[in-house]
Amino acid sequence: MKRLFIGLALLASSTFTCAITPTSPPNLKQMAGEFEQELTGNILPYWIKHAPNPKTGGFYGQVSADGKADATAERGALLSSRILWSYSSAYLNYKNASYRKLADQAFSDLETTFWDKKNGGLYWSVSGDGKPLQTHKQIYGQVFGIYGYAEYFRATGNPQALERAKTLYRLVEQYALDKQNGGYLEVLGEDWKLQPNTTNSLGSTSAKSQNTHLHIMEAYTNLLRIWPDAQLKQQQKALLGIMLDKILDPKTNHLALFMSADWKVEGDGISYGHDIEAAWLLVEAAEVLGDADLLKRTRALAVKIADVTIAEGMDKDGAILNEASATKGLTNSGKDWWAQAEAVVGFINAYEITGEAKYLTAATQTWGFIKTHIVNHQTGEWHWGTDRAGKVIVQPTLSMWKCPYHNSRAMMESAHRLQKLTAKPITQ
């Protein structure tokens, strides 16, 4: 069965349920206030308290769900880059000195611990005491460096951060760009040489992935905000074309997860969280790029993806389910924290575009699930997620992958967007 039959396959699944319950239109100012309170009262204080390792000047590699830090755990540049982005953005928006302090610490950590002084770029991981462990150049990790450095420059004006972002961009373009087929490869060696058949950030050996391209686009968007370089604009426009013409399936409005070097889709997996995250990031990329045609196209697509996410990926409790397959139906009924965060922004984005209340209702229902099941009311921050029945999945609150980036960004984005919308009527 081809991917265009995903809707039929999912509806045929006896375990799959999607629902959106009509509710009264929310008070936008109140909802924006809830997002800001969650950000400043719960998420940001957690990382200030639990992430820094005072003995090394860096961060812990792992903190358990009950708040116990493991100073020996492997830790990644990805976590430090994401802390850098989150606290730079928070400082940019709120001018709180404690946010600036943690952003400064993350910048220093990347510089002193993760930067490859011989070859350039960021190591993937180091030991708890800061010795390089996985020294390959995962492109996914490099572009989060760009994302964080660019935001730090926006917040502080530190010229070294801008130069680091430019350097990473040039390294990615020099070594990871597929000059024959377009797009970007996944994994390179410590010396930036190609390493074929190497596992990428999502555990696949495919030559290319949607996830890496999505986050390259995201990083280039942020770099364009501070450095409107002509070549960068050209590469970003080409990348949006790849997202829309190579990775998106126009029949289903899902994004393929994995592809060969020449863009043959490998597998039929669907990630609802990545779909809805891509929906609003594509619009943002087109806006910053300043391309009217791409903006029109991405705005229309963002609404279609929101519709598909509600119809296929939203459970009856408002949560976004993790993954499905075009041939097997629902394959992962978990409800991870990051997918819920991205869905709130994606649905509000669709509401901004259309003015249709159903998207605001969807955002409200996902936010309700987050408040009830995902927010950790005991130790702070958010749980990893829940199973389908709502039972909390116990995983470390801080780890190589568990970070403040998805939820802090969702709270800032959502609050800002709703604040701009408060003067606009809700379509009934």
Describe the structure.
The protein is mainly alpha-helical. The chain has one domain: Alpha/alpha barrel (Glycosyltransferase). 54% of the residues lie in helices and 8% in strands. The chain has 13 helices and 16 strands. The strands form seven sheets. It has a three-stranded antiparallel sheet. It has a three-stranded antiparallel sheet with strand order 14-15-16. It has a two-stranded antiparallel sheet with strand order 1-2. Strand 12 and strand 13 form a beta hairpin. Helix 3 packs parallel to helix 5 (139-156), helix 4 packs across helix 5 and helix 11 (337-354) packs parallel to helix 13 (405-421).
Task: Give the helices and strands, then pairings.
Layout: H1 6-12, H2 28-50, E1 62-63, E2 69-70, E3 75-76, H3 77-94, H4 97-114, E4 125-126, E5 137-138, H5 139-156, H6 159-176, E6 187-188, E7 208-209, H7 210-226, H8 230-247, E8 248-249, E9 254-255, E10 258-259, E11 269-271, H9 272-289, H10 292-313, E12 323-325, E13 329-332, E14 335-336, H11 337-354, H12 357-374, E15 385-386, E16 392-393, H13 405-421
Helix pairs in contact: 2-13, 3-4, 3-5, 3-13, 4-5, 5-6, 5-7, 7-8, 7-9, 8-9, 9-10, 9-11, 10-11, 11-12, 11-13
